[in-house]
């Protein structure tokens, strides 16, 4: 096997920042695939206060306050840590 270098293709995706309170906005953004996690179910990971469904991998993914929820190229949703979000993405201004 030979190692090659590749560059990720530039693509546009949509994202919404989860501020810990905008459940309705994220539910609408994710086509009703974003839910809060009740406190009793947070024993193993108390920082996970919501979940979003990733249809690409057929699984629910835990979400922390302050993460961006991204809609991927295949319609999947997944969280991305805000500390590195702006290192990987830049805002697109159309028009």
Range of helix content = 10-25%
Specify the biggest β-sheet: 3 strands, antiparallel
| Strand ordering within the main sheet | 1-5-6
H/E order of the elements? EHEEEEEH
| Cα radius of gyration in angstroms | 15 Å
Number of helices: 2
Residue runs with pLDDT of under 50 for 5 or more positions: none
Percent of sequence in beta strands? 25-35%
**Sheet/helix structural class:** alpha+beta
Count of discrete structural domains: 1
Q: How many E strands?
A: 6
End-to-end distance = 45 Å
Query: What average pLDDT do the residues reach?
Result: 91
Overview of this protein structure:
The protein is of the alpha+beta class. The chain has one domain (14-86). It has two helices and six strands, in the order βαβββββα. The strands form two sheets. The protein has a three-stranded antiparallel beta sheet. Strands 2-3-4 form a three-stranded antiparallel beta sheet. The mean pLDDT is 91.
């Amino acid at each position: 096997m030979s190692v090659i270098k590749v560059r990720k293709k530039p693509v546009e995706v949509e994202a919404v920042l989860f501020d810990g309170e905008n459940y309705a906005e994220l539910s609408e953004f994710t086509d009703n695939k974003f839910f809060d996690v009740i406190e009793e179910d947070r024993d193993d990971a108390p920082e996970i206060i919501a979940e979003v469904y990733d249809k690409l991998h057929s699984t629910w993914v835990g979400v922390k306050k302050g993460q961006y929820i991204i809609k991927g190229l295949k319609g999947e949703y997944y969280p991305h840590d805000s500390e590195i979000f702006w290192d990987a993405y830049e805002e697109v201004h159309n028009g």
